[in-house]
Amino acid sequence: MDEDIKDWGFALLGPTLYHRTSEALDAYDTHSGRKLWSSALGRKDWYTGKEGVPSDDQTIPPVFAQQDGHTGVLFAYADYTKGSGTEHDRTDVYLRSVDADSGKVSWTVRLPAPKGATVGDLEPAVIGAEDGTAAVRVITRTDDSGSDGGQSATTYAVDLKSRQVTWQKDGFAGGVLDSGVVIGAQLGDDATFQAIDGWHANDDDLALAGLALTDGSPRWKQDGRTGVEVEQVGGGFFVAGSLRDSRTGQPVPSAPDGSFIHCFNDQRSVIVCDTKETARAIDAQSRKVLWTISEDDPSRKKPEVKNAFHGAVYATADADGVVLDARTGKDRGLYDGASTYVINEYAAAGIDMNVYPATE
Question: Cα 214–76–110 angle (5° rounding)?
């Protein structure tokens, strides 16, 4: 890919991979690698010039939503227009839906400007979509002085049928949508954002919070934080330092404690969490521990979990790729070469978009 084209990530739906870049949304057949269609973005410019070309390390895959019997591929983008004469420079944020089958643009809507801030150079993100509503997060600057200005965010909920913004929360940075709750950081005055590790503040004026997708009303809030980083899990769970309940924000007691926790939903009945010290599977309904493999287990190597899907856990143990049974933790077999960064019933795709076919 051209180095001037930014790669924002990809997602699988059925036998098709949808790839989002700064120039277009592209669809590929996972079996042959053939490009099925390309929907050009056609924006004027994607950064303001005040901050230079931003080092934006976000991963922002497209999001799928059912609309009038069709599947829409959703993404958000910013379009910068330099003012002339007495006109101010302007950055507008848009939400777009592209038909998953044809690649035709179904619609594009412009979101209202954030209040008391300007849109920054970091790409906006569709956090997710549920029950006909999408959540979109926009990173903003709290003044126009460039990179020395403070950072903030605005989160929007957009009704996909009426294409109207149903609520807008300035000073709130949504990062996860799950079970009807938009989860993210309530921001103070000195917040800063790093794509690798989330939001930070020198004072304890950040909060981990959940808002109702329906109307933006508070569901729960945990104040007094210097950092907030959230990670999507699904199935009623998210990660913020530990595995947590999306509806309450509370930690799940049966989840492992440890550094660098990542959790995966097998999209059936199991959540698998991995830390440097422990790999553990939890029943998604009862929240009982199904199995644990720790680094000090004398009988087994502690695997590094990469993903989970439909009763299978994909991991590595030293040089081997190993498939574990999600409910028992027993080895089911080895696999060679495949990267399971994203996986479904048709294919697995690595982070560099190398695709491997699914097998029985």
Answer: 75
pLDDT digits (tens, 9 = 90+) for 256-279: 988 899 999 999 999 999 999 999
pTM: 0.94
- How confident is the model over 303-352, as pLDDT tens digits? 999 999 999 999 999 888 999 999 999 999 998 878 899 999 999 999 99
In 3D, which of 300, 247, 299, 235 has the Cα closest to residue 273?
Answer: 235
